[in-house]
Amino acid sequence: xRFSGNEVNQYVYKFSEGDASMRDxxxxxxxxxxxxxxxxxxxxxxxxxxTSACVRYFDDGxxxxxxxxxxxxxxxxxxxxxxxxxxxxxxxxLLVSVRSGARVxxxxxxxxxxxxxxxxxxxxxxxxxxxxxxWAWDSYRRFVQMYSDVVMGLDKSRFxxxxxxxxxxxxxESDTDLTAEDLEGLTDLFLDEYKRQVGRSFPADPVEQxxxxxxxxxxxxxxPRAIYFRRMNSIPDDWGTAVTVQRMVFGNMSADSGTGVAxxxxxxxxxxxxxxxxxxxxxxxxxxxxxxxxxxxxxxKDQNPEVFDQxxxxxxxxxxHYRDMQxxxxxxxxxxxYMLQTRNGKRTPQAAFRIASDLVDEGILTQEDAVCSIxxxxxxxxxxxxxxxxxLAQGTLLGAGLPTSPGAASGRVVFTAEDAVEWTKRGEQxxxxxxxxxxxxxxxxxxxxxxxxxRGGMTSHAAVVARGIGRCCVSGVSGIEFSEDAEGNxxxxxxxxxxxxxxxxxxxxxxxxxxxxxxxATVPASISGAFGRVMGWADRFRRLEVRANADTxxxxxxxxxxxxxxxxxxxxxxxxxxxDRITAIREMIVAANEQERRRALDKLLPMQRSDFEALYEAxxxxxxxxxxxxxxxxxxxxxxPEAVAELAAQTGHDTAYIENVVxxxxxxxxxxxxxxxxxxITYPQIARMQAQAVVEAAINVKRRHPLWSVxxxxxxxxxxxxxxxxxxxxxxxxxxxxILAHASDVTMVCQIGTMIxxxxxxxxxxxxxADAEFFSFGTNDLTQMTFGFSRDDAASFLDDYYDxxxxxxxxxxxxxxxxxxxxISRAAELGRRTRPNLRLGVCGEHGGDPESIAFxxxxxxxxxxxxxxxxxxARLAAAQAVLGRRAPVRR
Amino acid sequence: xRFSGNEVNQYVYKFSEGDASMRDxxxxxxxxxxxxxxxxxxxxxxxxxxTSACVRYFDDGxxxxxxxxxxxxxxxxxxxxxxxxxxxxxxxxLLVSVRSGARVxxxxxxxxxxxxxxxxxxxxxxxxxxxxxxWAWDSYRRFVQMYSDVVMGLDKSRFxxxxxxxxxxxxxESDTDLTAEDLEGLTDLFLDEYKRQVGRSFPADPVEQxxxxxxxxxxxxxxPRAIYFRRMNSIPDDWGTAVTVQRMVFGNMSADSGTGVAxxxxxxxxxxxxxxxxxxxxxxxxxxxxxxxxxxxxxxKDQNPEVFDQxxxxxxxxxxHYRDMQxxxxxxxxxxxYMLQTRNGKRTPQAAFRIASDLVDEGILTQEDAVCSIxxxxxxxxxxxxxxxxxLAQGTLLGAGLPTSPGAASGRVVFTAEDAVEWTKRGEQxxxxxxxxxxxxxxxxxxxxxxxxxRGGMTSHAAVVARGIGRCCVSGVSGIEFSEDAEGNxxxxxxxxxxxxxxxxxxxxxxxxxxxxxxxATVPASISGAFGRVMGWADRFRRLEVRANADTxxxxxxxxxxxxxxxxxxxxxxxxxxxDRITAIREMIVAANEQERRRALDKLLPMQRSDFEALYEAxxxxxxxxxxxxxxxxxxxxxxPEAVAELAAQTGHDTAYIENVVxxxxxxxxxxxxxxxxxxITYPQIARMQAQAVVEAAINVKRRHPLWSVxxxxxxxxxxxxxxxxxxxxxxxxxxxxILAHASDVTMVCQIGTMIxxxxxxxxxxxxxADAEFFSFGTNDLTQMTFGFSRDDAASFLDDYYDxxxxxxxxxxxxxxxxxxxxISRAAELGRRTRPNLRLGVCGEHGGDPESIAFxxxxxxxxxxxxxxxxxxARLAAAQAVLGRRAPVRR
Lengths: 891, 891
Prior knowledge:
Chains A, B: InterPro entries: ATP_grasp_subdomain_1, PEP-util_enz_mobile_dom, PEP_util_AS, PEP_util_C, PEP_util_CS, Phosphohistidine_dom_sf, PPDK_AMP/ATP-bd, Pyruvate_phosphate_dikinase. Chains A, B: Belongs to the PEP-utilizing enzyme family. Chains A, B: Its EC number is 2.7.9.1. The structure is a homodimer of 891-residue chains. In chain A, 46% of the residues lie in helices and 18% in strands. The relative contact order of chain A is 0.07. In chain A, α21 packs parallel to α24 (594-619), α28 (684-704) packs across α29 (722-741) and α35 (850-859) packs across α36. Among the domains of chain A are: 258-344, D-amino Acid Aminotransferase, Chain A, domain 1 (2-Layer Sandwich), CATH 3.30.470.20; 384-523, 3-Layer(bba) Sandwich (Glucose Oxidase, domain 1), CATH 3.50.30.10; 572-712 and 723-737, TIM Barrel, CATH 3.20.20.60. With 891 residues, chain A is an alpha/beta fold. Chain A is elongated, with a radius of gyration of 32 Å. The interface between A and B is large, with 50 and 50 residues.
């Protein structure tokens, strides 16, 4: 018992006591019926047991405490009194539904029990009194079946088989063709089966039925599908579900009874107007089961104009009241309309924008409201082609992984990046299937329609690259086994029980993570006018600048199209994997002396310069931040004997020499090895070459476009102290100074900043800021080092962490505020203390994550930078962060 | 020019203006002569140019600023005036020495110039006036030679060849047999050679000579051997050297002149009494060069009792004054004694303890002073056998690496851990030579006399393990190349230009990092009674508890012998590599299901239990902290095809299955992978088995020794948040609770604590402390993650970091106060806020490092834990930390 002074916690609320604001306590369902009750709408009476009661149920080891019980009984008594009906009273029985309802909609994830309160006495009396014994027995049959399943977890198949057997025996097709006697016999069979499986009789006491049903609904919060759903949607496990107990009304009681569901607007297109379907003389489950074909909601106008008018009036009122498109359930009992539920309706991304835009025009929403009404995830989905829904329904599912980069793609399977290039060049459409990807695979990924990897999570190499280049990607598909031919080439793979060979067609859904056999038709991305309109409002409201991570002119152009205000991160090494460059970079790496190294760098210089020129051109004067080479050099060197031989031939060294270089470059923990600015410390020539390329490119572009603002920004990765930055800054300053001295026609300031991506850099940010004009938080690496979680390896244990509630969410997906966030916040504060105008941003994958963007806004950072396809979502999220409102979770 | 208000910085001090406290400014030499001057001792007059002047010299780009110059000239004028002599004045010439002198002694690392002020006119006048032209010409010859070398950097060999040629020509053996004319001719040759090499005449102007000499001494601060010496001794590069200019006195002027060096006590044994040697009619360099054999200092008593008495009187006074053994240089000029230098003398570890102990008895030092007078590094050296110094002098040096574990060892070379075991079992003494070591090599390392690795630094696997088990180890020997036979077995290696084959004898010096060919005799560790006495004082003064990291009963016994008060870290996995255990742990890892895993754990349980019992027995009731299994599981699984086949046979799985397990366990960055408590999250059965073994062992030992305090302490590694600890604590509590419930005869409390070794754990320490009774800072991992430096890989770039002054010291050797230290300090504060009696310690390698121990004392931690051989040094350092005084750096 929890007392606060003399006050007892309230665990049960009558509908008339609640309202829409009490969603956290009453759940979506309970808050909805309470609000409708308050609005004077026809809602069957009832009460809601709160989510707190559910939490206590679990805290108390799976029992309902006496104080909660007594509150339930009080509410029940009051309900019975007001209705003049009693549970289990054959003269005037009260029947109730017992429904789950969480704070956010978790459709179909938890349990519901209808027709509770029936037993043999009640059924018989009810059949006699209504003159409809068939209905009475059918209701009882349904209740026994549902209770056995939901409350007792009995094997459903025996019940279903009994119905099928009886129908066969009677020679009828449909349940509705069974007579009252048939249904009575069937119910008896069910009751026997219950007793056989449970070991005691089906409870006749409706109060016992009720309490068991309430517990079963509480328990359903933790059934596997509900847990899975929460994990997928970042819903905390400790919220619990409310339970709503409501007087039953019956759509299957008579010909003028019925039931239906409706949306106030078309959830696919967003077009205004009632959209839904109904079925007369039916219960809700009949609409769903598909045995009888429901009618479009518009037909109700002819069938019962009075009810239809009343309903449309209610719909308008609800939409205006909730200021959003509504998804409603209703029942007509003997010609009288009852509202059973209303909630903000789920909708397609297209519809979301259309509805938001229309609601502003209709004066229902402000522009701010409209911006906040859209889940930023929707935005990304809009930018990619999608599978045709009908074609998808026909597809054969092969397996599923994480939806690591959105979109939809079909292609023929290849197992190497080289094949992806070759096959595409000869006109094929391919899907690249790999254990995981490495930087060497980038060109192949670029050619492929989509990428499938057996390993890796949301921030694996494959995922990051795929999102960056807008390729659909599915990662971490468990159960993939590769088969090799005699030479060790992969020639096929098993995905679960299906085998896929090279050249077979498969299809990837980057929005769901599902993998299908064969080729599935897609529909192109369709961005309605509403999209641009709402995004325009978002841009007006947001404070954070939104930049893109882009490595190629194509990425940059894409980013600009998506509204990026600059490039926050150019990963120069991504350019190195192009065929002409990779040879030069390898020559540089295997150089035996300073002279060879310089020669190789001299080859790279013009290539890098032209790369940067193209980026500046693509960005038309917007700012471009170039990061110095970051990955360990061994990433550029192939390790197979053939490749070593080839490299030896290219560079004029012998293979033993190359093998030795490869050997020496090998690292035990490359993520914490010789990379980032550590390369520039060892090989300052590389930093100088890159600085030269950046500044010469900027000068060339500035000369061509004198009105553009072209200011080179060079970013130093992975620093741990001020001295590193200072040393490299000297190299850059000297190089840049010499170049600018010879370009007197151009006025240009080169800014030098640093990434803050080691914990130490964050801790010593005050010193580091003395040498840095901007900080870009590399939250991927910072997360890795703060947790000691390797992105590449953590997937192997993170599932256990979620299962055991040790982590709520993937820290690589949503910024860990308490740990990594502490370091960012400290660094921001210390950095600005040293340099008040220090520019601060985030360029890790978190830069595109709405939750993380909200945190960046709280910290007052200046910008976020993310992959081009996440830019529009980031713009929206940044606006929402300013407006202080998060979009509702609808998925 | 640097002004502070109207005040000009003082860059030059007369001897009479300085004293011993001004060592930082005047250098050791300058402070010493100033102090002796102040004490009224006979010191030739002069002045010292400060270390600040040197720093300015470098800041100003290698020139001496006008204000410093004018201060030098002023001091020179005053000196000339007081002596009535002038530089370059043939009538009464002043000759000076120009000597380097840093804050701490850097013997022989920097340059010195003697006899400055000579030119042809002065020499001739001097020869005539003293009637000793031979001396005059010899002095000039020496000066020209020294100036050419030190100031101009000319090739020395030509000068030396000229002397040899002349001696051959004259048919004499010794320089002293050359006549004044010979020496004049030789000097002319030198002057010609100078002009030839430099392109202009040797400077005749003594003031020019002086200024060039001062600059040369400044520059010698940055000569390669000085830089190397500073790196080895953690001396900051920005201190600079002072320059002392002093009137020359001449030990080679007459038969009653002479020069010598002496210690106030025997620097090898510490025995009280004058110890040293001298040579009449000679200059200092003659004593060192070995051309003439110097006499023991005691002979001076007969030769010149007056001077001897004066000298012994001065020595006693100096020792009493400095309260330490003194190392002095003196010169006798025509029967008159001059003191040229005094400083605290270097000594062997044995001598250090003897001297400290004696000085207390003599009432010169307090016990506190004595404790603070000893460098903790000395202690470790005392615990290991050492090479016989004479034998070592004969040895052939093969190469050198880092001295990663002290001691001296000779043995025959083997290249695999298996061979180390096998050869030793058949009676051989072996040195294990590896590229680097892995946990699989531990047994072999244990059998070997010493370990040599081509890779790795002070905290590499080889180093950590070797120190832990007291094996001598040399790591990171560059230039080692292994050669293999046709089957890929290593059969030999080249160290530089020498080739070593399997079975060849080599010797390792773990105190210097040097590797010698052949077998070198050793002398056993000799710990005098003074050692125990001083350590006893240290124990009384220190506040920090000192524990040991020990994994076996043998380690534990060793640790106890060295004064460990408990075991702060048992790495349970080290036991797993023993033959009987490794099979069981591998069975556990490859278990296909829960049942197989449980079966394997059931096999491990009694082994672990008996391991822990033996540890408790060895520690006789002192506390023992057991860490749950920490390394990634793949460390236990061999990867070669043969080993996989063997494991398959042992476990009854097929090889493909084992290969698949190996494959799945493989990690890109194992240091940040599936290890530490992450293993216990995935496999809670392992944590439960280990907890059971710990507690059952404790109960058994407690029953045998009821008076011992046996309280199990279980430590959870690598947490990132409270939930991990909470989950594992539940597993342990449940297991332990059940066991204790059945052992009602024993009263026992099991403490559960955690390592703080991820940055996140430090940041969230307040939450974590809610579940932890103690924190042990795992500073190795914490340093890795805070810097993003992999211990295994950082060696490849850290040298560049030192060369470029980006890091002063290896953060794995000395705790990084500003970065890692911030996290420790924060965690300590937050942790204690949650739990005021939280026990705090360090169990990384830093736990044995005096600098880091001082930091632990500052933070008020409760204990440090280090490898057994570092325990006595840690005890001493902990006392020094309390006393707030660091031992002088003498090496």
